[in-house]
Protein 1
Amino acid sequence: MMRWLLVTPLLATAAAAAEPPSVTVQGTCTASAQPDRARIFVGAEATGPDASRVTTAAITQYNRFRAEVDKLALPDAALTSTGVQTDRSTDDRNGHLVTTGYTARAGLTVETSSLPGLARVMQAAATDGMANIGSMELFLSDPLRQKLELSCLPKVTADARERATALLSGIGAALGDVLTVNTGEAPMPGPRPVFAAMSMARVAAAPEPDLSAGPQTINVTASVTFAIAASHK
């Protein structure tokens, strides 16, 4: 038993000494594309003294607006409901909370690949008197983002090799084999608003807007570890 206690640290030291010298560098690649998806949030809202009536009113307006969206037959549409929420408003009167009314809200997020179609959604929301019309946001779909990332992978590792070669040339060393590669996509800003929420009258009267918001960019990085080749002097 004592023999193993003495030999084990010697083996560990020998293994560490056998590891080749290495250098780790980070390569980068940037790719851009025009956004191919857009979304907008639209909300119905009703207020009044009776909780049941304001809830019914919000749901009725929501259902009417959703039916109008369905009629637009937006391509690749994804509709997500926020459900219905009814809040009670109160006032402190001489230390007692008194109910002053209720507000009910029902919202719908509409996402599609048709940017002009989403503009028509905004116009339909204004026509129906929806209380909340959010900003239209443009973003890259998952398939497009993946395509851009895949196009970057050969470039990002090539960039890492070029950087490592330049780094070692200053000390007269050369690259050896690749030991490890780790890739990732750098965090990017979220979806880009095309225009902010507008008053209902302005949206209803506005012509269909130019939605050319410019390309969006992703950054792909790779951390590559190379062995440093032995000198043959």
Protein 2
Amino acid sequence: MSLGGVLLAGDFNARTSTNTDFIDYSQLVNVLLVPQAIEDTLPNDMLECQNRDIVTARWRREFLDLCRTTGLFILNGRTPGDISREYTCLSNKGFSTMDYFLTTADQLEGVKRLEINYDEKY
């Protein structure tokens, strides 16, 4: 029984830079004899993800492990309206991306746009 998809949003306090949020099975198909069907479960447009924030922070590993083990994908940086993964945090220390929107693969087509708005004067 399917209960539906997941959309999760919040301040995860994790600066991920350009680290991937999924397991790239294409690298394992020939090495570990992983079936082609597993590789095909990854949406093609999920392979590239942009991020203006090139710094990594303390909680990035745990956050990315959460994504990899649950099948959640980061929408920031790969969704129309936020292809460059805009900064989500502006503070006296500078700009960063720590707030994320996540969803499951079956919900990706339903997400049409993601915009990060902030006041340019800061």
